[in-house]
């Protein structure tokens, strides 16, 4: 029997780790249980202790948690601190200025080392330049940059002066960027001329110009441009400035703006179940505490010896918590990568791990699955062809990892020496929530195992009652925790309705995922979203967002979007479309399908492009006019239709919609 079969048949349990064991920060299940018990016994005492031990406070807090306006919770509110001081200055002051903060590898393989002292100088200069332009505490700054040291500098510089940043992933369209600039009320935009990915230069500044021209963001007075490629860009005098020019004459020091722990550190947009993305608002103290604490617990990171590498983009929460803030908050060295895992070949990740002697590697199941395929096709790019002996911990995030991919990762990348840490969390949770601990938790492939100490996660039914282990239900968190979102920017009502619904009693945090706990171990297995949110390559997409984009096309009368399981990307987007004119056939339908794909890429971004588009004369609806989504999901999967379709007006459309384009 292969290893994979035995896992599937016996739910094989893997030891926590051969390499970490006794030296782990949380060593053994007893240590885990003791910490969890401490949190149960004295919740505020537990969090207060961590916040005092982990962060440097300018003014200590006197109260840990304020629940008086629940579910709008406040943590450490009268305490004052600065995120960039915590992430940079304190390590320099402790004598670690010469230590590498970031080892940056560009798309073409060029490596730049940035020490903590370099980072401090660059952040201070840029923070001074922002202040000179009138950017001040509480202002919102949108960052639309490629993976770059400049991206981290821009985020940290905003934090230094108390400005709230909102990073928009470089793959989003001008329309998506415009919506975010308007919603967040940005006063400045930081972008680049172009970005380099897989040997190709892709525009950023021209998309930013388009976004600004689309209206509603007249408050944006400054556009600061990082020169990455030197490619040609249009220039608006008086508004646009080169990043390298404006920092030239600035001072190397910059007094941090000391802010309340509750001051918004950033706003990050994420998809929900309506057409409009939510501005997830995070606090300074809580986010920073948990980003730092989980670096120590989940990744067991030891700043003196570890080299950490998170492959996420700074445009997502993973890049915020585990590139910009977490690794720096604990003074670790990290690798940062500009490019893509398949360029110049599919061995790029393994090559970089070997070259930089990475010890902790954190990536997404989608990347693992695509690299499995590539290494089956070509032994040269197989991880076994590289010296990966520096690795001691492997992490995964973003979507459920299938046991096959888990075991492949464990056996081929870690060489069966490193635990695979499957971290369940979300944009809204700010940091890890349910995850094994290296050196403590016995591992079961496909399970994110147990909640971290202090995280009161459980599974309930539709009324908010806890269900017994072994029974599926809704994943919730029973008590507030410091790194949770504080609000949906500008929409407190949506915050309450989305995350603390009255149906569950108004006090349970609703994650939006289904889950089941193992009968014996209590281990959690995540069963995917229970709302209209898709997860494509670990990226969240709202079906409604894609539907609205499609119906905005002049050809389209109606559209419904569902997800379909996909071997590589986890889920794939399938769109069912009714045109205003008659249903297209043959070459014409291929042509229009391609047009619509390009349209969605322009409206939202290439990540939202439907893999399949199916045209029908109509959509299957109930008598009351509701689209039968379950039926569409079956059609998307190519399943036989077992549902009752007797109420359908025109059953022939089922044949039409079964055909992929
Ligand atoms: C959704 C959150 C967490 C940062 C990246 C994605 C899914 C995430 C796991 C995991 C199973 C997972 C959930 C969650 N998800 N990690 N380890 N196992 N599912 O953040 O874009 O906010 O998406 O991703 O469905 O709700 P996000």
TrEMBL record:
E.C. numbers: 6.2.1.1
Cofactor(s) it depends on: Mg(2+)
Residue ranges annotated for the AMP-binding enzyme C-terminal domain, each copy included: 545-626
Gene Ontology terms: cellular component: cytosol
Residues at which CoA binds: 197-200, 318, 537
Ranges of residues in domain AMP-dependent synthetase/ligase: 94-481
Highest taxon in the source lineage: Bacteria
Swiss-Prot/TrEMBL GO biological process terms: acetyl-CoA biosynthetic process from acetate
Matches recorded under CDD domains: ACS
SUPFAM superfamilies according to UniProt: Acetyl-CoA synthetase-like (SSF56801)
Binding positions (ATP): 398-400, 422-427, 513, 529, 540
Binding site for Mg(2+): 551, 556
Residues with N6-acetyllysine modification: 626
Recorded GO MF terms: acetate-CoA ligase activity; AMP binding; ATP binding; metal ion binding
Catalysed transformations (reactions): acetate + ATP + CoA = acetyl-CoA + AMP + diphosphate
Keywords of the record: Acetylation, ATP-binding, Ligase, Magnesium, Metal-binding, Nucleotide-binding
Family: Belongs to the ATP-dependent AMP-binding enzyme family.
Function per UniProt: Catalyzes the conversion of acetate into acetyl-CoA (AcCoA), an essential intermediate at the junction of anabolic and catabolic pathways. AcsA undergoes a two-step reaction. In the first half reaction, AcsA combines acetate with ATP to form acetyl-adenylate (AcAMP) intermediate. In the second half reaction, it can then transfer the acetyl group from AcAMP to the sulfhydryl group of CoA, forming the product AcCoA.
Record-given protein name: Acetyl-coenzyme A synthetase
Source organism: Caballeronia glathei
């Amino acid at each position: 029997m292969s290893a994979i079969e035995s896992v599937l048949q016996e739910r094989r349990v893997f030891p926590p780790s051969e390499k970490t064991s006794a030296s782990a920060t949380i060593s053994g299940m007893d240590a885990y249980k003791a910490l969890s018990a401490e949190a149960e016994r004295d919740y505020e005492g537990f969090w207060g202790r961590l916040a005092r031990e982990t962060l440097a406070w300018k003014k200590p807090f006197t109260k840990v948690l304020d629940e008086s306006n629940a579910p709008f919770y406040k943590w450490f509110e009268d305490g004052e601190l600065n995120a960039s001081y915590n992430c940079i200055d304190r390590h320099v002051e402790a004598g670690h200025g010469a230590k590498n903060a970031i080892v940056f590898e560009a798309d073409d393989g060029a490596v730049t080392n940035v020490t903590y002292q370099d980072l401090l100088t660059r952040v201070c200069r840029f923070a001074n330049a922002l202040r000179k332009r009138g950017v001040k505490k509480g202002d919102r700054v949108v960052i639309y940059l490629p993976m770059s040291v400049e991206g981290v500098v821009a985020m940290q510089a905003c934090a230094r002066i108390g400005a709230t940043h909102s990073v928009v992933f470089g793959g989003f369209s001008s329309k998506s960027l415009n919506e975010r600039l308007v919603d967040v009320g940005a006063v400045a935009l930081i972008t680049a001329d172009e970005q380099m990915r897989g040997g190709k230069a892709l525009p950023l500044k021209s998309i930013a110009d388009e976004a600004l021209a689309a209206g509603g963001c007249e408050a944006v007075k400054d556009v600061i441009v990082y020169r990455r490629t030197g490619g040609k860009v249009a220039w608006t005098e008086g508004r646009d400035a080169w990043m390298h020019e404006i920092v030239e004459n600035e001072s190397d020091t910059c007094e941090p703006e000391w802010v309340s722990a509750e001051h918004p550190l950033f706003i990050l947009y994420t998809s929900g179940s309506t057409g409009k993305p939510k501005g997830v608002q995070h606090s300074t103290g809580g986010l920073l505490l948990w980003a730092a604490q989980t670096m120590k617990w989940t990744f067991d990171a030891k700043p003196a010896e570890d080299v950490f590498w998170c492959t996420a983009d700074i445009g997502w929460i993973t890049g915020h918590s585990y590139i910009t803030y977490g690794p720096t908050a604990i003074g670790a060295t990290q690798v940062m990568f500009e490019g893509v895992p398949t360029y110049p070949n599919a061995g790029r990740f393994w090559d970089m791990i070997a070259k930089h002697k990475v010890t902790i590697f954190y990536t997404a199941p989608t990347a693992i699955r695509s690299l499995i395929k590539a290494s089956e096709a070509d032994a040269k790019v197989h991880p076994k062809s590289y010296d990966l002996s520096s690795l001691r911990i492997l992490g995964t995030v973003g979507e459920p990892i299938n046991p096959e991919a888990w075991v492949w990762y464990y056996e081929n990348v870690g060489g069966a020496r490193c635990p695979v840490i499957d971290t369940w969390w979300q944009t809204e949770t700010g940091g890890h929530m349910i995850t094994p601990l290296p050196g403590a938790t016995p591992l079961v492939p496909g399970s994110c195992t147990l909640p971290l100490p202090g995280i009161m996660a459980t599974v309930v039914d539709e009324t908010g009652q806890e269900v017994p282990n072994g029974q599926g239900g809704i994943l919730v968190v029973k008590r507030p925790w410091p790194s949770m979102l504080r609000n949906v920017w500008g929409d407190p009502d949506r915050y309450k309705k989305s995350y603390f619904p009255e149906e569950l009693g108004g006090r349970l945090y609703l994650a939006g995922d289904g889950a089941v706990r193992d009968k014996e171990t209590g281990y959690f297995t995540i069963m995917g979203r229970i709302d209209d949110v898709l997860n494509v390559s670990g990226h969240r997409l709202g079906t409604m967002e894609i539907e609205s984009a499609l119906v905005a096309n002049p050809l389209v009368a109606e559209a419904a979007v569902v997800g379909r399981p996909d071997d590589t990307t986890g889920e794939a987007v399938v769109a069912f479309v009714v045109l205003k004119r008659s249903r297209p056939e043959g070459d014409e339908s291929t042509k229009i399908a391609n047009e619509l794909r390009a349209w969605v890429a322009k409206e939202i971004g290439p990540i939202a492009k439907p893999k399949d588009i199916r045209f029908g004369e109509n959509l299957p609806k109930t008598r009351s006019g509701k689209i039968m989504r379950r039926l569409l999901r079956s059609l998307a999967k190519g399943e036989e239709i077992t549902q009752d379709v007797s109420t359908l007006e025109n059953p022939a459309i089922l044949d039409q919609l079964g055909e992929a384009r």
